[in-house]
Specification:
This protein has about 475 residues and is mostly helical. The protein contains 21 helices and five strands. Helix 4 links the parallel strand 4 and strand 5. The structure holds a DNA duplex (15 and 15 nucleotides).
DNA sequence: TGAAATGTTGGGGCG
DNA sequence: ACGCCCCAACATTTC
């Protein structure tokens, strides 16, 4: 007997459902990771994610060694690799946690069918808080709006308690050959990721530290602080969740226990607000499972009929953080530098790309996919479609964010903007979100020459808003 | 998980 | 002292 545990985006050993099931079988275990040699779907990992993946694999390998085991690393097409390892090792079963990415589902179905027909036992496990397929309304329909989904979740779901940590894994009688993690060439050749690694430590230990710190401190003011990008108001767990370095159930129960113990109503409210965000992730998977083409197509397909612009200059200005709107530029430069962006700012920059620049949300989703260390197909697709107003629980199309007002509201001191746009550091806060409206002498004193060391706005927001509303209305009338 | 347009109110300047 | 008007400030409506 030998069980292969195939690790994918669940790079940990603690509370790992597939590993747990394999251990229950009391057979030796062969932990495996397969890196595709060429893209095996429409959404191969982006550059920032690949760098993170490298470190996460190193961490997993270390953890497995501590469990008296090791990680076998291979490169190639999934089915071929699995078959060759099965042949070499005489493994008789395969365990993995389910992926809900449409391309991966296709592979997993094929692999399951083929290996089962050869007598291999294949078991896939759920690694979310709930099984999203089971959450339906009373009439059996799929939820497309978050709030009713959330209510149903609260009513129906009993989140599984985390499994006990494994102490030791039984090894196979002989180990197959493995590549070194470095052989996967996941790290970029030009070391642009050093600034990312200054902010992030992609280890499981750091994930635990972040959870501890968040639950002991930041969660107290979560509702108030989460919308202020200058603060560290969130949990900073998203990349760890995206790569499965921490289990969502561990996070959920850790905070749920606090919630139960707390008699302080404000504390309870804050914890609940955070847990609600975790359920957004489940909702995103719910949508991805039932509408798998929403990674590329608008859920409201009228939005794909609109004649979106292909303005390369605007797209590039947005990507580089050179739009002339400080809150947008600060966000885009944070993304480039840190591999991550504050959620409030994600909404602002998304609104700007889609509405002010009239560029299809797909372009933004692609850029985020390539640059975010927490890139998650379900979350990314839902987030963009939400912002564009084209998808599930969509903001109405006429809801256009005003980058100046959003800046003033959520970064009133301009600390966030100044952090990522040092060229504006001497601008008084009165003008920090609208340098283009500042009196000439103020700009001069701050050492700013618009068009030279900080760009003029690439669009006039008020005009762009009117253009966009007319543009969408016209397109909608045509497709009625 | 908006913002602009429109409506209402109330304090204070002013004739 | 009174009413009129202006216009913040806030509330409501609309897209």
């Amino acid at each position: 007997m030998l069980s292969i545990v195939w690790f994918r985006r669940d790079l940990r050993c603690e509370d790992h459902p597939a590993l747990y099931e394999a251990i229950k079988r009391q057979s030796p275990i062969l932990p495996l990771f397969i890196c595709p040699e060429s893209p095996m779907g429409k959404w191969p990992l982006g550059a920032a994610s690949r760098s993170w993946l490298h470190d996460a694999l190193v961490g997993l390998q270390t953890q497995l060694i501590q469990l008296n085991s090791k990680l076998i690393v291979a490169k190639g097409e999934y089915l071929l690799i699995l078959k060759s390892i099965i042949e070499k090792t005489q493994a008789d079963s395969l365990y993995f946690n389910r992926s809900y990415e449409p391309d991966q589902i296709k592979w997993d179905k094929k692999i399951t069918a083929e290996l089962s027909s050869e007598g291999i036992y294949v078991e896939s496990c759920n690694d979310l808080l709930c099984n999203p397929q089971e959450i339906r309304s009373q009439s059996g329909t799929v939820y497309k709006v978050f709030t009713p989904f959330y209510k149903a979740f609260q009513k129906q779901v009993d989140v599984a308690k985390p499994h006990k940590n494994p102490k030791k894994l039984a090894s196979p009688s002989s180990w197959p050959k493995s590549l070194a993690i470095d052989d996967l060439n996941l790290l970029p050749k030009i070391k642009w990721d050093t600034s990312i690694k200054k902010f992030w430590k992609p280890t499981q230990d750091q994930a635990k530290k972040n959870l501890k710190q968040f639950s002991e401190n930041a969660v107290e003011n979560y509702i108030e602080d989460r919308d202020q990008p200058a603060l560290r108001g969130g949990s900073c767990l998203s990349p760890y969740l995206a790569f499965g370095q921490i289990s969502p159930r561990v996070i959920y129960h850790h905070l749920q226990n606090q919630y139960k113990k707390s008699r302080n109503q404000s504390h309870r409210n804050n914890v609940e607000a955070f847990l609600r965000q975790l359920v957004w992730r489940e909702f995103a998977y719910n949508i991805l499972i039932h509408f798998p083409n929403t990674t590329d197509k608008s859920l409201d397909q009228r939005f794909d009929q609109i004649k979106w612009k292909t303005n390369k200059k605007h797209l590039m200005a947005w990507q580089k953080g050179l739009t002339g709107y400080p809150i947008v530029d600060a966000g885009m430069r944070q993304l480039w530098k840190v591999g991550w962006m504050h959620n409030r700012v994600r909404m602002i920059v998304a609104s700007f790309l889609v509405k002010d620049c009239q560029i299809h949300w797909r372009q933004g989703a692609r850029w985020f996919w390539d640059t975010l260390v927490d890139a998650d197909l379900a979350n990314n697709s839902l987030g963009w479609q939400w912002a564009a107003g084209s998808g599930a629980d969509a903001a109405p199309y006429y809801r256009v964010f005003n980058p100046i007002l959003q800046g003033k509201k959520f970064d009133p001191e301009g600390n966030y903007v100044k952090k990522f746009l040092p060229e504006l550091k001497d601008l008084p806060k009165r003008w920090i979100h609208e340098p283009f409206n500042a009196p000439e002498n103020i700009l001069q004193q701050a050492g700013i020459t618009l068009g030279k060391n900080y760009p003029n706005p690439i669009v006039d927001h008020n005009q762009a808003r009117l253009d966009y509303l007319a543009f969408v209305k016209e397109s909608r009338d045509e497709t009625k």
